[in-house]
Design goal:
Elements lengths: L2 E5 L3 H13 L4 E5 L12 H5 L14 H8 L2 E3 L2 E7 L4 E6 L5 E5 L2 E4 L3 E3 L12 E2 L4 H14 L3 E5 L3 H12 L3 E6 L10 H13 L3 E4 L3 E4 L3 E4 L4 E3 L2 E4 L3 E3 L2 H5 L10 E2 L11 E3 L4 E4 L6 E2 L4 H15 L13 E5 L2 E7 L2 H6 L4 E9 L10 E9 L5 E8 L3 H13 L4 H5 L15 H14 L4 E2 L1 H7 L6 E4 L3 H6 L6 E2 L2 H7 L9 E4 L4 H12 L5 E4 L2 H11 L39 E4 L3 H6 L6 E2 L2 H4 L13 E5 L3 H12 L5 E6 H9 L1
Parallel strand pairs: 1-2, 1-7, 2-3, 7-19, 9-16, 10-11, 10-16, 11-12, 18-20, 27-31, 28-29, 28-30, 30-31, 32-33, 32-34, 34-35
Antiparallel strand pairs: 4-5, 5-6, 8-17, 13-14, 14-15, 20-21, 22-23, 23-26, 24-25, 25-26
Helix pairs in contact: 1-8, 6-17
The structure holds flavin-adenine dinucleotide.
The site of flavin-adenine dinucleotide has 31 residues, from helix 1, helix 2, strand 4 and helix 8.
Length: about 675
């Protein structure tokens, strides 16, 4: 009879035990767990502190008793494995509560010891107000400190996903939070174009960011940064990464790999034929890079636990490796990454490029559409997708999973371009953001639409001088634009093109990159030889600037509008402003929505949306009054013109799009 002993009883360990029982009714299965709990939801800890999860017991997925009942497994909590005697296939343990020493014999051993948060050697890090978060006990300590001392300020050291989730949790508990991160931006493994969405959200919720900085000292009410600045901190959370728990394995002489994790083969077998390992403690093949990496995440740990159990019981199930798909939700914003970033791909010597698109997560006409940013990294010559990132609000998670599937399956950008995705107006787009990203990548790859990511633009400007052209409407331009950029709304490009110097270098951007592509094709068609469209347009530029400081261009962004907890859910009903019309002179009517109108409108124009124009026509005055209608592009105002003419108005003209209206106004 097999005697399976598992060291570590949380993600990988508990999964391994459950799988082993399903495979074998008669194996003797034992879990040795050093802590007080097995199978608890460590990923849920921040949400209990933040108050989203109200009941602590919800985090405990199994007790030793319930696990034993479900899987007939001997669970020993408070029981540390202290030595592996490989020669005799025996594990020595110590019970931390009773002091009892015991041994457990095995035929197969599964190591699932996970890792521990890195404890940085910072002066003052041993004080009572300094915490890490890894276990339920850590969570209880933070919880009781907040209840007892009512801290007002918190510093989170480390802007990875746990640090960010905790920044949200502390904010929800009423603390003023600052994040200190050594990398140029939070979620340092992501590109600035996507990480910037998260930074903007943090700023909007009044979280202060100290990026590119390190903490050098902690005292009871402040931390000192390496630039000498002090930041208020009644409570400090250290969250700078996790180190695999390897002492036991090392002392047993098991081989450690180059990435610093326990070495296993593709069947998750260690250098000992009778010992398997899974989870945060191991290093494994990266499916894209063809090299060993450590990916301490719950998904891989669970799958590996399952496979380790199968193979320990004689099967030959190969683990294909991981692509490190991870995602974070901070307040309402979401950002995630799968596979390689552009930086990582190029650092690996891969000939990679990337593009960015921004598109609504469902049709723009159905209420509640949110912008999703999609960044795709692909091999320049083959088009094989090497990685991807998404950021936004609704729908960013769904697109990330599509990209993860594409990366793991080694799909190409053309495969993605041709992919059918679920579509119905409230749920998607007939041309999904992923399809769009693939088209844009194909256009970059073929040279049809020369684009550069913002980071590439910044590097390109090291050696090139260019004219910037802002293709957005004048209101957007006036709010913020790249310093020195010429305002040339897309609608006016055609009529102005002849005034531009054909052989100069132009960097063009619109709001999302889409009209930038159209403008670029127009310019190339007109004989321009040196035009680059900024991938993802202004949204990419502004996200980038939220997360990074460009060397070669300036884009000033104000502080984002402050958001209040609980007040940003749901979508406001659109309102059209009621206007008093007692004048009989020329009337300019903006037929866009109230929201578009509020952003900026033709001077003196009133707002009656296309939907309202028929109902409110009587407010416009005499049927022979001069009325000029306009909208964003001229399409809605064309319909409105037709409606008014049908109702008998005799002096109505379609002024076209806002750009043309404003140009006429200037003249
Ligand atoms: C706050 C938090 C939030 C997270 N959020 C996410 C998330 O959203 N998404 C995600 O993918 N991942 C997340 N993770 C990471 C994820 O939880 C880990 O990757 C996963 O738990 C690793 O599983 P594991 O079984 O390898 O190790 P663990 O779950 O850490 O379990 C290892 C167990 O081994 C025990 N052990 C160690 N040494 C011994 C010994 N000598 N004797 C007996 N027992 C021993 C430990 O006590 C521990 O309980 C989060 C982690 C934390 C802490």
């Amino acid at each position: 009879m097999e005697k399976i002993v598992i060291i570590g009883g949380v993600a990988a360990g508990a999964t391994a035990a459950a799988k082993a029982r399903r495979l074998s009714a008669d194996a003797e299965i034992t879990i040795l767990e050093a802590g007080a709990d097995i199978s608890f939801a460590n990923c849920g800890l921040p949400y209990y502190i933040g108050g989203d999860i109200k009941s602590r017991s919800k985090l405990i997925l199994q007790s030793p008793e319930s696990f034993n009942e479900a899987y007939q497994t001997n669970v020993h909590i408070h029981t540390s494995a202290t030595k592996i005697d490989r020669a005799n296939k025996r594990v020595h343990t110590l019970n931390s509560k009773t002091g009892e020493e015991k041994t457990f014999d095995y035929t197969k051993l599964i190591l699932a010891q996970g890792g521990k948060p890195i404890a940085p050697p910072i002066k003052g890090a041993d004080q009572d107000n300094v915490f890490q978060l890894w276990t339920l006990e850590d969570m209880d300590n933070i919880e009781s400190y907040i209840s007892k001392y009512n801290p007002k300020t918190a510093v989170v050291v480390g802007g990875g996903f746990i640090g960010l989730e905790m920044a949200e949790a502390f904010t929800k508990r009423g603390l003023k939070v600052s994040i200190v991160e050594m990398m140029p931006h939070v979620m340092g493994i992501m590109e600035a174009e996507t990480a910037g969405v998260i930074q903007e959200e943090l700023l909007a919720y009044n979280v202060d960011l100290y990026t590119g900085k390190a903490v050098t000292e902690i005292s009871s009410h402040e931390v000192i940064l390496n630039d000498g600045k002090s930041v208020d901190a009644d409570l400090v959370l250290l969250s700078i990464g996790v180190r695999p728990t390897l002492t036991l394995a090392k002392e047993a002489g098991l081989e450690i790999g180059q990435a610093g994790g326990l070495l296993v083969d593709s069947t998750l077998k260690t250098s000992d034929d009778d010992i398997y390992a899974a989870g945060d403690m191991v290093e494994l093949e990266h499916r894209v890079m063809d090299k060993k990496v450590r990916i301490p995440l719950a998904g891989p740990a669970n799958r590996q636990g399952r496979i380790a159990a199968e193979n320990a019981l004689g099967k030959k199930h190969e683990y294909k490796g991981s692509i490190g798909t991870s995602i974070v939700k901070v307040f309402e914003a979401i950002a995630g990454i799968t596979g390689l970033s552009l930086k990582a791909a190029r650092a690996e010597g891969l000939d990679a490029d990337a593009i960015v698109v921004h598109k609504e997560h469902h049709t723009s006409y159905y209420p509640g559409a949110e912008m999703v940013s999609v960044l795709v990294v692909y091999d320049k010559s083959t088009g094989v997708i090497l990685g991807g990132q998404t950021a936004g609000y609704e729908g960013a998670d769904r697109r990330l999973d599509v990209l993860a599937t594409a990366v793991a399956s080694k799909l190409t950008i053309t495969d993605l371009a041709d992919m059918d995705f679920a579509y119905s107006p409230p749920l998607g787009n007939a041309n999904d953001a992923i399809n769009m990203a693939a088209y844009v990548a194909e256009n970059r790859q073929s040279g049809y639409s020369p684009t550069l990511t913002v980071d590439e633009v910044d590097a390109y400007l090291d050696e090139h001088k260019a004219h910037w052209i802002d293709l957005r409407d004048v209101f957007s331009y006036e709010k913020s634009h790249v310093e020195g950029a010429i305002s040339l709304p897309f609608e006016l490009l055609h009529s102005t093109i002849s005034q531009l110097p054909k052989h100069d270098l132009f960097l063009i951007y619109d709001q999302t990159g889409k009209k930038g592509h159209q403008a670029l094709r127009q310019l190339i068609g007109a004989g321009f030889t040196n035009v680059i469209n900024v991938s993802g347009g202004y949204l990419s530029l502004s996200h980038y600037v939220r997360a990074n400081t460009p060397k070669n261009f300036i884009l000033e962004l104000g502080h984002p509008e402050l958001k209040t907890l609980g007040e940003n859910e749901g979508h406001e009903e659109e309102e059209t402003t009621e206007v008093e019309l007692n004048d009989t002179g020329r009337l300019v009517v903006d037929t866009r929505t109230a929201e578009e109108y509020a952003y900026g409108a033709y001077p003196g124009a009133i707002n009656i949306s296309l939907d309202e124009i028929e109902r409110r026509a009587s407010e416009l005055g005499h049927l022979d009054r001069e009325i000029v209608l306009y909208c964003a592009s001229g399409a809605r105002s064309a319909y409105a013109t037709r409606i008014l003419k049908h109702l008998g108005f005799t002096n109505v003209t379609n002024g076209g799009g806002i750009a043309r209206m404003m140009a006429n106004y200037r003249e």
